[in-house]
């Protein structure tokens, strides 16, 4: 299967490494790479490792036509406000028609339903396992493993930056020191406000609700409060009671419809959503047939994000039957 990569940063490069490592068993070929500032590289016969980049082609359409790939892999920077230009990139690929895989949660949080319909109309697949919890199975779990089970709601500790800030304050550091530590670990988007004010969690909540609960929502419709008002003093008081704080995403059905919210919640230290270390994430699904169960990912990094993209590509290359 031939691949056109849109975006070649941390995840794009990790994916290229993974494809090289598994090439014998899974023979994918990268025929094009398109970036914002580094330019474009194209060879329909297959690019060599670490290819030289020429000038940036003028449009995404020109790039996709030149790369002549079977699938586009959208790995550009997240735009939490409206998911663009990633949504336009995905639409251009679906229109060719090419399969699309993305790790970018913006398009799933803002335009999932429309993009899935466009993919179906074009007879191609649209996949996004890494958009929430990297390569740990979340979306593909529901696509393949749980026939007949309905998701009634979910509860997740899905933001790493807030957790590092809280852990730093619990051990005597300042809010700013916690944020600096998270930034040094490379897990914080931009200036960190996006994580601290809860918008990263809101985008993940909207993405999960759109895919698993057909919510047709956006991050702006998630009731969101972050951890900005949390202080070291309050955090330490809570810690002395054997508890901690986590930024929690919740989805549940209520009498007035689907409730989606992000809040800093006080949890027992042994709560499953509180006890995973460092950058780990956890989500619990509340279901009709399987009660409550979940997925945990311990200290994921960019290689696990790349794996989620890879798993989607393998699925497509095998002629994935489900939408
Ligand atoms: N890093 C993670 O662990 C992780 C985990 C889960 C999901 N994700 C998601 O995966 C995506 C990629 O993350 P990353 O860490 O690889 O980001 P990154 O290192 O910032 O790389 C972004 C890439 O996108 C390119 N780009 C930006 N705007 C573009 C445009 N308009 N047209 C073409 N290329 C464009 C950039 O080009 P230049 O190189 O020229 O600047 C760069 O190559 C993001 O949506 C992120 O939210 C990342």
Give an overview in words.
The chain is α/β, with parallel strands linked by helices. It is built from eleven helices and twelve strands. The strands form two sheets. A six-stranded mixed sheet has the order 3-2-1-4-5-6, with helices on both faces. It binds NADP nicotinamide-adenine-dinucleotide phosphate. Residues 6-12, 34-38, 75-78, 85, 103-104, 130, 134, 302, 305 line the site of NADP nicotinamide-adenine-dinucleotide phosphate. The site of NADP nicotinamide-adenine-dinucleotide phosphate has 23 residues, from helix 1 and helix 11.
- How many strand segments? 12
What amount of the residues lies in strands? 15-25%
Q: Rough shape?
A: globular
Per DSSP, the total helix count is 11
How many domains is the backbone divided into? 2
Tell me the CATH topology of the largest domain.
Rossmann fold
Overall mean pLDDT: 95
Q: Give the strand order, joined by hyphens, for the main sheet.
A: 3-2-1-4-5-6
Distance between the termini: 19 Å
Instruction: Give start-end ranges of low-pLDDT stretches.
Output: none
Provide a brief overview of the structure:
This protein is an alpha/beta fold and 323 residues long.
What is the topology?
Layout: E1 2-6, H1 10-21, E2 29-34, E3 40-42, H2 60-67, E4 71-74, H3 86-94, E5 99-102, H4 105-122, E6 126-127, H5 139-144, E7 151-157, H6 160-170, H7 175-184, H8 193-196, H9 199-213, E8 223-224, H10 232-240, E9 243-254, E10 257-268, E11 281-287, E12 292-297, H11 302-317
Parallel strand pairs: 1-2, 1-4, 4-5, 5-6, 8-10
Antiparallel strand pairs: 2-3, 7-9, 7-11, 9-10, 11-12
Helix pairs in contact: 1-11, 3-4, 4-9, 6-7
The site of NADP nicotinamide-adenine-dinucleotide phosphate (NAP) has 23 residues, from helix 1 and helix 11.
């Amino acid at each position: 299967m031939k691949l056109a990569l849109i975006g070649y940063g941390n995840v794009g490069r990790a994916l290229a490494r993974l494809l090289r490592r598994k090439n014998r068993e899974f023979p994918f070929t990268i025929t094009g790479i398109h970036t914002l500032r580094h330019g474009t590289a194209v060879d329909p016969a297959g690019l060599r490792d670490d290819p030289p980049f020429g000038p940036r082609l003028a449009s995404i359409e020109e790039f996709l036509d030149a790369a002549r790939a079977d699938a586009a892999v959208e790995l550009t920077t997240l735009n939490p406000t409206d998911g663009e230009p990633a949504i336009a990139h995905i639409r251009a690929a679906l229109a060719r028609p090419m399969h699309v895989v993305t790790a970018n949660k913006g398009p799933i949080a803002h335009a999932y339903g429309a993009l899935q319909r466009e993919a179906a109309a074009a007879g191609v697949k649209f996949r996004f396992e890494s958009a929430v919890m990297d390569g740990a199975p979340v979306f593909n779990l529901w696509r393949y493993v749980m026939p007949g089970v309905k998701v009634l709601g979910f509860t997740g500790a899905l933001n790493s930056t807030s957790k590092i800030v809280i852990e730093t304050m619990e051990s005597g550091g300042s809010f700013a020191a916690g944020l600096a530590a998270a930034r040094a670990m490379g897990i914080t988007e931009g200036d960190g406000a996006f994580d601290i004010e809860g918008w990263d969690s809101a985008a993940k909540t909207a993405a999960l609700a759109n895919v698993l609960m057909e919510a047709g929502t956006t991050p702006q419709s998630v009731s969101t409060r972050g951890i900005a008002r949390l202080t070291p003093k309050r955090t330490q008081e809570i810690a002395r009671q054997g508890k901690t704080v986590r930024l929690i995403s919740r989805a549940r059905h209520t009498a007035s419809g689907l409730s989606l919210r992000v809040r800093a919640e006080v949890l027992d230290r042994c709560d499953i959503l509180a006890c995973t270390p460092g950058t780990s994430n956890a989500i619990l699904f509340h279901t009709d047939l399987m009660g409550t169960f979940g997925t945990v990912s311990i200290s994921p990094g960019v290689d696990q994000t790349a794996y989620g993209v890879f798993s989607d590509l393998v699925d497509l290359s095998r002629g994935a039957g489900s939408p």
